[in-house]
Amino acid sequence: MSSTPTTEPVTPAVTRVALVTGASRGIGRAVALRLAREGRHVVLVSRSEGPLNDLKHQIEQAGGGRGVGGKASVRAVDVADGAALAAVVESVAEEFGRLDILVNNAGITKDGLVLRMTDEDWDVVLRTNLTSVFVATRAAARAMMKNRFGRIVNIGSTSGVVGNAGQANYAAAKAGLIGFSKTIARELGGKGVTCNVIAPGFIDTDMTASLPQPVKDGILAMMAVKRLGVADDIAAAVAYVSSDEAGYLTGQTICVDGGLTMS
Ligand code: NDP
After folding, report:
1. CA-CA distance, 127 to 98, in Å (whole number)?
2. Does residue 155's CB lie within 6 angstroms of at least one atom of ligand 1?
């Protein structure tokens, strides 16, 4: 007989350990702050140690909600360096004896129309936005399977769902994440590990800061919700998908885009 679904939020008996890549700014920073507020110990990853240390300090000062202090650790690494990234993920799992939540968020753009796109711009975007996700997931999977609990959240993009002129490399990487995530969902679902994609539309961060105003206005006109997204919009979705109570949600791509695509 199946167990009765509960409407009560599920509070884990242990402190869940969450690793967030690209935590130094933008969406990753908001995700890290949100997960810390939910009581997770958050491992902050990006290339720049200074901003990560500042964020760790902020998390510790702010407290972790539910009466406990905020907990964070810092690991500076370039996610495009597969061996270094795998070593970081494995060392976190070993140090804490668990790695419950992996948020693969670090990403870059190297935009250009396909006729002018260089091999280097293709390679670096695929390595940073897609290969790193494979490497980190593979490194995290063992600990998650052993503990029979895992939440892998990959930050995709609506560009990977509907395409976007000038972003062949980026859209290919983000579309690749969708097939990858569905496969991981199938491979690890029986071990209590879920894998989903959160696909933002247009979020106000450094990544989108240099877009000309007419482009921003054009995007805004296509949105059902008449405002640009903020990093906290994505953090809220990640918080749910990575929670204990989201154990029946896997293999999905959730577009958090103000109704831009409705795909
Ligand atoms: P930002 O440019 O604001 O931040 C990118 C983050 O990724 C930084 O923390 C950066 O840290 C980190 N990063 C980049 N390259 C590497 C690397 N090689 N190794 C380690 N860390 C790296 O981007 P956003 O916050 O806007 O984007 C976050 C994610 O959301 C990305 O995957 C992006 O594709 C996706 N997204 C964003 C959208 C938007 O509108 N902003 C829309 C759709 C998807 P550091 O430089 O310190 O290493």
Report:
1. 26
2. yes
Pick from 50, 32, 36, 39: which is nearest to 14 by CA? 39
For residue 62, pLDDT beyond 90: no
Residue 238: CB within 6 Å of ligand 1? no
Residue of 149, 170, 180, 202 marked catalytic: 170
Q: Exposure pattern of 214-248 as b/e (b: 16+ CB <10 Å)? A: eeeeebeeebeeeebbebebbbebbbebbbeebee
3-state class (DSSP) for residue 192: coil
pLDDT in tens, 179-215: 999 999 999 999 999 999 999 999 999 999 999 999 9
The model's pTM is 0.96
Q: Which of 137, 230, 244, 240 is nearest to 184 (CA)?
A: 137
Active site residue 170: yes
Is any atom of ligand 1 closer than 6 Å to the C-beta of 105?
yes
Q: Which two tokens stand for residue 256?
A: 């958090």
Quick check: CB of 74 below 6 Å from ligand 1?
Answer: no
Q: How far is the CA of 210 from the centre of ligand 1 (A)?
A: 14
Q: What are phi and psi of 45, to 5 degrees?
A: -125, 130
To which CATH superfamily is domain 17-256 assigned?
Answer: NAD(P)-binding Rossmann-like Domain (3.40.50.720)
The domains of the chain are located at 17-256
